[in-house]
Amino acid sequence: MPYTEDRTHWQSGQGLWEHVPESDWNNWTWQLKNRITSLEQLEKYMELTPEERAGCEHANTKLAMAITPYFFNLIDRDDPNCPIRKQVIPREGEMTVGAEEMLDPVGEDGHSPVPGLVHRYPDRVLFLVTDRCAAYCRYCTRSRLVSNAQDYNFHPEFEAGLKYIEEHPEVRDVLLSGGDPLLMSDKKIDYLLGRLRAIEHVEFIRIGSRIPVFLPQRITPELCEIFKKHGPIWMSIHTNHPRECTQTLKDACERLSFAGVPLGNQSVLLKDVNDDADIMKALVHRLVRMRVRPYYIYQCDLITGSAHLRANVCKGIEIMKQLRGHTTGYSVPQFVIDAPGGGGKVPINPQYITKIDDEAIHFKNFEGKLYRYPLNTYGPLDSDDDDDCKCDAEEIMF
Ligand code: SF4
Question: Which amino acids does the record list as binding [4Fe-4S] cluster (predicted)?
Answer without folding.
Answer: 133, 137, 140
